[in-house]
Every structure is written in structure tokens, then in C-alpha cells.
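Quick note —
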Amino acid sequence: MDGHKSDIRQQAWSALKIYAQADSRFDFDFSKFIPDFHGSLEATRRLMQMPSYQSAKCVFITPDNCLEGLRYEALINGKLVLMTTYAIRRGFWLLDPCQFDPSNYRHASTLDGMERMGRPISLSDMMDLRLEIDFMVTGTGAINLKGIRFGKGHGFFDLEWAMLYSIGAISSTTPAAAIVHDCQVLAAPLIPEPFDTVCDLVITPTKLVEVSNARKPICGILWEKLADGMLETIPPLRELKVLIREDKVTQPDP
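Predicted structure written out below.
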């Protein structure tokens, strides 16, 4: 399965290089980041027309380059924006557009600005606030027509979903969307793993794919499947482990 996913990623990345914008840190190494691409603003506008976005009060948006425009628009629209830092190494951060001047929204939507304008928020904080996330948005390396993602290969969005699901901030019916370039949408078949977060919406600069019966994982974190070093480098994972041990969170049945 991993080899099959890797082959599919390489196929998409080869095509994407024509349309992608290089990253200042990683150039065109798509194994390290999800790039912005020509047409991402058109895809963002298409997503913003969806009722699931328009009705959302709190939106989780991954720290992918192609979603910077969406983070900015969400702040303009008055939505709470929950994010993670790169590789989740400094956990979750919450952007509340009521807490800073609109002139700073553009800066706040960037990865550097997010940590200056937003505030860190732990899983316990989210539970105390009874935070409810209405919509989840991610970029990805590639995706098929059934909403099954082929990301960078690290599984960060699946971890984010599992952590948020474990604390009750999202449910199995929370909609998830992917913003991608048309060349990243593939017809390749794939059976999702139990921990794969299947997207309800696949949105490109030119089209919208609505997925029927997109299956969401309800297994929580599969601790035995974590890659080496993840527990040590991702603080919310360690926090969740403590919350489960202290019976403040119930580990979902796998």
C-alpha cells in the first residue's frame, strides 16, 4: 500500500511542478511541504461558495501554502481559524479575528504571522472552551475522485483529525475539503486505511467534486502506527496520551 501511494504521489508531483510556487525553505521538495499553485485563489473562491463553509463559525485549516488565501478570507468572514504549526511541532494555534485589527489579517494568515497574532491552544483548552469545529480544510499531494488523499506521506492531517475527534471537537459527520490543482486529482483507485480521513469535497481552480458517503475515521490515534519520533516531537500527542491515562478522554475503539 505504501509503495502504491508513493508511486501516485510521484506522478502527481511531477505534474504539479509546472504549476507550483517554490517554497523559500524547501524549493520544490514536495515531500516537505504542500505548495501554493497557480489558480489557488480561484479554488478558494469556489470553496467559499459552499454552504458548509458559509455556515461554519470555526474552521480548521492546515498550514499548507495553498491555503494562505483561505485563512485570510476566513478571518475577513469573521470565522475562528484553528491551525497547527509546521509538522504540529508547536501544536495548535487559534486565530480570533475579533482579537486583532483587520489590517493584520493578511499577516495573521501566514505561518509566521499566525504565531504572532494568534494564541497557542492545547487540547485541554479546547475541551474547556467546548470548541466545536464546523469545517476541516486541507491541502494534499494528490487526491482521487473518491476523496482519498495521498499527502506528503507523514499523515499529519489524519493525526489532526484523530486528536480533534478524540476530544469531541469534531464528529464523524464534520465535513472535510481538499483544495488542490486539477493535476493533483487522479483517477487512481485506493482503499482507505482505517485512519485515512476521506474528503467530502475536492475543489480545484476549475471544478468541484462532491464525494458521496465520505468515510471519516473514528478510531482515534492508532498509537502503534505512529512513525518513529512523532510522539517526541508533537506536543498534542503527548498531551492526549496523558488525558487518556487520566480518564479525561476516552480512547475511541479502533
